[in-house]
Amino acid sequence: QVQLVESGGGLVQPGGSLTLSCAASGFTFSEYWMHWVRQAPGKGLEWVATAFSDAQYADSVKGRFTISRDNAKSTLYLQMNSLKSDDTAVYYCVRDLVDWGQGTRVTVSS
Q1: What is the pLDDT along the chain (110 residues), one digit of tens a residue?
Q2: CA torsion 69→75→80→85, rounded to 10°?
Q3: Do 85 and 106 touch, CB atoms closer than 8 A?
Q4: Phi and psi (nearest 5°) for 95?
């Protein structure tokens, strides 16, 4: 079955960096669009970025976040730089906007 396991979340100060990883299994990773979606405390879901043949970003993270994928390792990444308090959220790895991981929490706070 499809499994998506995120890791790399944690507490970081404003202006800091984190890299999230998503280990995928149970499907041919290279054939699917992969996404990062986040949910801030008390708010709805927000699409962050997508990777397939190219990368697409929400305006709120463009220029600060970089999505990438290693098809040989079936792993999706999200490099997050210049983090702001507004980036505090649970970050989910999503396949085709259908299958979701359990999420990893990112807290940006001093």
Answers
A1: 999 999 999 999 999 999 999 999 999 999 999 999 999 999 999 999 999 989 999 999 999 999 999 999 999 999 999 999 999 999 999 998 899 999 999 999 99
A2: 140
A3: no
A4: -100, 120
